[in-house]
Amino acid sequence: MNMIVRTAKQLGATLRRYRRQKGLTQLSLGKLMHARQATVSKLESGERGTQLGVLIDALTALDLELVVRPRSRAAEDIEELF
């Protein structure tokens, strides 16, 4: 399933959702990333200042990829309704 993410909090929530779907704890994901559980927690909470390498490590460990594309106008129209 593709997810549109526009904020750090949305990205964190998306990573948490995929981690849980894979049956991983923050600790076990951290081990796969060679990072501490606290690092995973910060990433999932959307805390600013997370290094790009940490994000890439998490994506790799969760077998995900990052796709960057121009924002669609239709999505902006929908957001204005809410």
From TrEMBL:
SMART domains assigned: HTH_XRE
Domain HTH cro/C1-type: 15-69
GO MF: DNA binding
Protein name: XRE family transcriptional regulator
Entries under Pfam families matching the protein: HTH_31
